[in-house]
């Protein structure tokens, strides 16, 4: 779908590379632009995120490196960077500079806090963005301790925002002929993705609180229940028809009017929990399949990978263990960088020079100011 779109990825760590890997899955030609010795150490995540990308090393702290980068950007469609605010300007590759050589370019700055606001220059990670966004105010255990989610929510929300913005900006460019600057902040997405819980508060209601919403475990119909073998089931019978199907399946017609009973460990909540404790997870999974009442097992990571639904949709075979990205038609092939550069008018000598620098570059762990 993005055949012919060229993306220069100057980002590090997870959010930017995840976004450009997604663009590669959609058919874009992605070139990772790394500083000498500034890439991540090889690891399984890096291998996954670098799939389908070409790699080139450019020293942006040298005049030659800046010239090379601007020459690349002059023919690219998208630049994505994740430097702290102000760093790209100090390096001489900020949007104003790049736009002068390519007015059609879509330029994305993907950061934790964004380009504006009092926290903009501060270093942080996913846990910090979620903390300030109020995420952990709603995600707590029974003792009130904040609970880390099973993935980097803010980082990946930022990735998704970047992809959506890039696609919209490319479409706009087709109509106007002009590129656009996108200031993408992980904090913004982490707040916006709590809209379900913030909407009542923004409309004048009380502020959201842990367990204070139907989707936060407030009621018996939408909760987790431990099974006899120490596993868990997820019950999501929010609609009356699904609650009825569940009640009918377990033979408890007296529960029909108790869908919105509080999940407080007493009364109906205790009765439902006691019932789940009488059967193993496999038995409850079979009952959920038969009753179609929004009842599914809580799977461990390996179980989830081998689940037939996951294998059908996002796994490229259980043995290869290759993850397909959403909407990916086939695993992306890395672009022919030499051929692309030749088509842009680069000489054989310039291409060899870039290749030599890239081949000589190592990949230590990240941590420079520009990476953060």
Describe this structure in words.
The chain has helices at 15-25, 44-50, 63-73, 87-91, 95-101, 126-133, 135-138, 153-176, 186-192, 195-202, 240-250, 267-276, 281-291, 301-306, 308-313, 337-343, 348-360; strands spanning 6-9, 29-34, 53-57, 78-81, 106-111, 180-185, 222-226, 232-236, 295-297. It has 372 residues and is α/β, with parallel strands linked by helices. The chain has 2 domains: 6-192 and 336-360, Crotonobetainyl-coa:carnitine coa-transferase, domain 1 (Rossmann fold, 3-Layer(aba) Sandwich), CATH 3.40.50.10540; 214-313, formyl-coa transferase, domain 3, CATH 3.30.1540. Helix 1 (15-25) packs across helix 8 and helix 11 crosses helix 13. The longest helix has 24 residues, at 153-176. The two termini are 32 Å apart.
Q: For the residues shown, what is the average pLDDT?
A: 90
Task: Please give the largest β-sheet.
Answer: 6 strands, parallel
Helix content: 40-55%
Distance between the termini: 32 Å
Q: Could you give me the name of the CATH homologous superfamily of the largest domain?
A: Crotonobetainyl-coa:carnitine coa-transferase, domain 1
Q: Extract low-pLDDT stretches.
A: 364-372
The CATH architecture assignment of the largest domain turns out to be 3-Layer(aba) Sandwich
What pattern of helices and strands is seen along the backbone? EHEHEHEHHEHHHEHHEEHHHEHHHH
Instruction: State the total count of DSSP E strands.
Output: 9
By DSSP (H or I, 4+ residues per run), the number of helices equals 17
Integer tally of domains: 2
Q: Percent of residues in beta strands?
A: 5-15%
Spatial strand arrangement across the major sheet: 3-2-1-4-5-6
What is the radius of gyration computed over CA atoms, rounded to a whole number of angstroms?
25 Å
CATH class of the largest domain: Alpha Beta
Might you state the CATH topology name of the largest domain? Answer: Rossmann fold
The general outline is elongated
SS class: alpha/beta
């Amino acid at each position: 779908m993005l055949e012919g779109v060229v993306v220069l990825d100057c980002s590090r760590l997870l959010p930017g590379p995840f976004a450009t890997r997604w663009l590669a899955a959609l058919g874009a030609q992605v070139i990772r632009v790394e500083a000498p010795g500034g890439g991540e150490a090889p690891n399984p995540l890096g291998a996954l995120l670098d799939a389908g990308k070409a790699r080139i090393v450019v020293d942006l702290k040298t005049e030659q490196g800046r010239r090379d980068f601007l020459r690349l950007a002059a023919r690219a469609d998208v630049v994505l960077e994740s430097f702290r605010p102000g760093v790209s300007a100090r390096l001489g590759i900020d949007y104003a500079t790049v736009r002068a050589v390519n007015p059609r370019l879509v330029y994305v700055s993907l950061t934790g806090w964004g380009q504006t606001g009092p926290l903009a220059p501060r270093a942080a990670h996913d846990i910090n963005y979620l903390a300030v966004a109020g995420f952990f105010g709603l995600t707590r255990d029974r003792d009130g301790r904040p609970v880390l989610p099973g993935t980097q929510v803010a980082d990946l929300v930022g990735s998704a925002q970047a992809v959506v913005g890039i696609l919209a900006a490319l479409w706009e460019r087709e109509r106007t002929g002009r590129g656009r600057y996108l200031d993408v902040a992980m904090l913004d997405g982490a707040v916006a993705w709590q809209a379900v819980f913030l909407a009542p508060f923004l409309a004048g209601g009380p502020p959201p609180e842990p367990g204070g919403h139907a989707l936060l475990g407030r009621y018996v119909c939408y909760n987790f229940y431990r099974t006899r073998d120490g596993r868990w089931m997820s019950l999501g019978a929010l609609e009356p028809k699904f609650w009825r199907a569940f009640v009918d399946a377990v033979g408890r017609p007296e529960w029909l009017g108790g869908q919105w009973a509080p999940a407080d460990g007493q009364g109906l909540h205790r009765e439902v929990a006691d019932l789940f404790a009488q059967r193993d997870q496999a038995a409850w999974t079979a009952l959920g399949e038969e009753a179609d009442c929004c009842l599914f097992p809580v799977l461990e990571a390996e179980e989830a990978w081998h689940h037939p639904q996951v294998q059908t949709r996002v796994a490229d075979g259980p043995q290869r263990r290759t993850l397909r990205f959403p909407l990916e038609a086939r695993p992306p092939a890395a672009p022919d960088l030499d051929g692309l550069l030749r088509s842009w008018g680069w000489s054989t000598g310039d291409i060899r020079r870039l290749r030599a620098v890239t081949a000589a570059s190592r990949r230590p762990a990240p941590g420079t100011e520009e990476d953060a």
